[in-house]
Specification:
6 helices, alpha/beta, Cobalt-precorrin-4 Transmethylase, domain 1
């Protein structure tokens, strides 16, 4: 059976994207809400800080929700450990500390077509891929990772 919008969770990283390209990709998938899972929803890239993104998405009829509790706190990102070790720490330790946040994300994803947003273009190199995998295992979602260089990257 093909996954439905209510059982699919999309992810996207804005690395290499413009806000217009992001909007085009979200519209193409019928996305109605974006969960910003950055611990610090700030970006030096124009249009991608939380408040700017909220205004842009709201004007397009897409709901913006910041969920910093699902991000990797700054103190962990600056520990000087490898990316793989950081992602393992996120998956094994940090996600265990926020079951209520994960449950809220699952409820939001069930309610309407949703995308998880962070920076890294490749979900395999980003914590959103690990969160999507957790949503798959706990709630039965099917993860679809949107990319700019090719349209879809299947879940892990």
């Amino acid at each position: 059976m093909e996954p439905t919008q209510q059982t699919t969770v999309y992810t996207i990283g804005y690395e290499g994207l413009t806000t217009q390209r992001l909007l085009k990709k979200l519209r193409a998938r019928g996305i109605e809400q974006l969960l910003d899972i950055r611990a610090d929803p700030f970006s030096r890239k124009s249009g991608f800080s939380g408040d700017q993104l909220r205004v842009l998405l709201t004007a397009e009829g897409i709901r913006y929700i910041s969920m910093p509790g699902l991000g990797i706190p700054r103190e962990y990102r600056h520990r000087g450990i490898s990316a793989e070790s950081l992602l393992a720490l996120y998956e094994e330790v940090l996600l265990a500390k926020v079951p209520g946040q994960i449950d809220r994300a699952a409820r939001l994803c069930r309610a309407r077509p949703t995308v998880l947003l962070c920076f890294e273009a490749d979900a395999h190199l980003c914590h959103r891929g690990r969160l999507a995998r957790r949503l798959e295992s706990l709630y039965g979602f099917h993860a679809v990772h949107l990319r700019d260089d090719f349209d879809l990257l299947p879940g892990f």
